[in-house]
Design brief:
Chain lengths: 308, 308
């Protein structure tokens, strides 16, 4: 089944212990859709400026991503400047130039309206809710958010949370959203806000899914599930790791079409695998050069890493 | 097979978000031996002062721990004062009163000489090496250390590392010991220093084992293995979590008598289980009230948490 993802398509200027890069292709929807493209047809809704080249678009279309929903606007694309020199696990934002993204009003091409899966990447929750309402027939909705919306626009975020089958956030965001420092208790409070399931990401330490009675439609509250990251010898650029995790996770779910606890667990493994590729090179470079065989090999490594 | 553990038997005064406790029973050898006692006969070599009561000793002997190697010296027992108010994952040391521990010279009772497994908890590496030399017939040696010995007494620590079948350290210590910030590369450098296997602990994020060609005597370099922690809703006091992990891990290994990759992986799971009990109450309280059935239940939880 196909996924529609709405979110940022951007350029990133980055500094990490491995070096510096100017204006590499980035953005949540970019990383998400590249990762998801290995599993299922993926369609993007976003906005870019005049600096977004045919070569940039080809990175997506080469993987079969449908880019007809990427709107061209006058001006420059969203540009984020960040540094990981202090800590590979935490980005220091040096500059956020929203540019054309400041006036983003998502438009959904008519050809996208039959998408069965919808992923609301981290954008203004008002836009997230708007897109959700425009896609009333989707089978499953996933979403992300960030500290800014949790802190300054909670009342706009809450109606989005109520629409989500799966919310993906990091541990700091889960603590902020719930007011609980203990992750397990934070997850339970987040579930009370509406999402059927929450996945909490711990950066290089993997992620954990917490389920409610509503997660699988069986009325059963399933026990949490946790997935490791692979122990990579080279981490060049953590940007997009979480979005690539989301893309692999949601892409695998969409490829299966039905939701069971086992499919959910397998999807989290694929999420971790896709995140492991994302961080090995700057920008989208490693995901561009990933094959299905690479993915299956790492899936097996992750299984061997974690199974008795 | 029986384990001899040498290390601190102490009192801890603690402050955590859950409260304050004065002079609860602690020390690396205490936590280790309580955890190991559920799996195999365990013998302790340590030193205490006149403040160590019959009731304190009974905590150990009630679990079948052999305490004949705990020497009584004039003066007070080792007393550590620490706070976790800033961060449950990081202890701030407020005071370290070595007391009788300052002149600790381990004496091994003749009844302990047939111990097949030896665990060198975190003490002066000169003493660790001395104990190792006094136990030439042991089948397997595990050990721990800390930042102080790595930083200020590296030349004394290196001969100990060369004696170890398994070194257990945390990620910060692995980085310090190796000079590598990437954990996977740090582990490889640590293995070059001598230990056949290294387990790197990530606090609440679990631990990872890295193997060398010498790990299992088969000349094969096995791939890393990683274990999660359970997602506890209550973490009262992280003190002793690492020592309880080590006790569960080494205790299970000793109970099996033979070393295979599968037994090693299972031992790490039991290590994580024992660590999960340690942190739920202050001091030794939770381990004192743990049963075999509790342990098997958590082992199953940890399997369900991590297996596809």
């Amino acid at each position: 089944m196909s996924i529609l993802v709405v979110g940022s398509v951007a350029f990133d200027s980055l500094e990490t212990p491995s070096g510096k890069r100017e204006r590499v292709l980035g953005g949540a929807a970019t990383h998400f859709s590249l990762a998801a493209s290995f599993f299922t047809p993926t369609r993007v809704v976003g906005v870019v400026g005049e600096d977004f080249s045919a070569g940039n678009e080809k990175v997506l279309t080469d993987k079969g991503v449908d880019t007809r929903g990427i709107e061209r606007a006058e001006g420059k694309s969203f540009h984020w400047t960040g540094s990981y020199l202090n800590d590979l696990n935490t980005a220091d934002t040096l500059a956020t130039d929203l540019n054309v993204f400041a006036n983003f009003a998502p438009k959904i091409p008519v050809e996208y309206e039959d998408s069965e899966f919808l992923f609301l990447a981290n954008i203004d929750p008002v836009l997230q809710l708007d897109v959700r309402k425009k896609m009333p027939k989707v089978k499953m909705v996933g979403g992300d958010t960030m500290n800014y919306w949790i802190g300054a626009h909670r009342e706009k975020l809450l109606p989005v949370l109520a629409e989500l089958d799966v919310l993906l956030i990091n541990d700091a965001e889960a603590r902020q959203l719930s007011g609980e420092s203990n992750v397990a208790r934070a997850a339970e409070k987040v579930l009370e806000l509406g999402p059927k399931t929450v996945i909490i990401k711990f950066g290089e330490y993997g992620s954990a899914a917490f389920f409610s009675e509503r997660s699988f439609g069986d009325g059963v509250k399933h026990k949490p599930f946790r997935v490791h990251t692979l122990l990579l010898e080279e981490v060049m650029d953590p940007t997009g790791a979480g979005d690539s995790f989301a893309g692999g996770f949601f892409g695998y779910l969409a490829s299966q079409g039905t939701l069971t606890p086992e499919i959910f667990r397998t999807a989290m493994f694929y999420g971790s695998v896709m995140g492991s590729f994302a961080v090995e090179r700057f920008g989208t470079e490693r995901l561009e050069n990933t094959t299905k065989a690479d993915i299956e090999e790492r899936f097996q490594q992750l299984r061997d890493l974690s199974h008795l």
